[in-house]
Hints:
The chain has helices at residues 15-47, 87-98, 107-136, 143-171, 176-190, 199-228, 234-251, 253-271, 282-293, 302-345, and strands at residues 55-59, 64-70, 73-74. It is mainly alpha-helical.
Amino acid sequence: MTSQSSQPSMDSITPFQQMIASCSGAIITSLFVTPLDVIKIRLQAQRSPFPKGKCFVYCNGLMDHICVCENGNGKAWYKPRGQFNGTLDAFVKIIRMEGIKSLWSGLPPTLVMAVPATVMYFTCYDQLCAVLRMKMGNQAEKAPLLAGAIARVGSATLISPLELIRTKLQSERQSYKELSAVIRSSVRAEGWLALWRGLGPTLLRDVPFSAMYWYNYEKGKVLLCQYKSSEPTVTITFIAGAVSGSIASIVTLPFDVVKTRRQVELGELQARNQLAQASPSTYNVMKRIVGENGIKGLFAGFMPRLIKVAPACAIMISTYEFGKAFFRKTNQEKKRRALTLQTGTT
């Protein structure tokens, strides 16, 4: 069930224009969501201060960052100053005591890594979805499901070695020369697959999330367009993105809990140079969580994840769709002018 109006042909916009649109969306999403996680981490830290060598996960709506504490202090994302009585109080005090720029602590590494990964992911999704819609015929409505899963596998696999390098740099103060020596040593000992350590839990969470997100988003967008009898607007894409992101985040929450636990464990073991003791499998981590906290342990952080994922998905997709609509309109105007000039000369 798709309407022609809500599914514009992909030949009206180039892959490069899709990249610009997704890059804009990633930057805007980071700017909006980063302060929320900075405040969350500061509130968590004052309730239970992070000891030396302890890790915490920082996520700004686009990707996760592992932060390792030294002497109770984080290297970039966490500064244990001030006593806060809640979210609004933390927001005001951080601005007053440290300046408004502190709300965007940790933004540079996000822009360096998350923006290219997001550009690759969204552009691949659009290109794959357009091809699959043509190839799948009567099953074309399932194209977003398959395209979303494939695009996420590709982007997560390509970015995984960079994730490992970034985590290693955060966990230890070392030069790039020392880092390259450590990486070469790991590759010699464990093979090239050492660069993709931890990819399994990431794919277990992100691939189902991506498949469900895009399928529900495309369905929701079409239904809202039919209900409003209009083309997709920023409001329609914002609502569809928020709802589909919420559904996907709830369903994949257990895998997010496992991934976070593994990320933290790997970061702490790296900080102590005990990486060989890392949990051997996702299943073992899941079993340990259930043993410690019961089934409810797999759904820890339900509300914070929902509050963060829903607006991040909504902002990202509405900005992306707005960018594509802008380029589509620009391309149509260029074609119209070209046709006018052509008919005028003939």
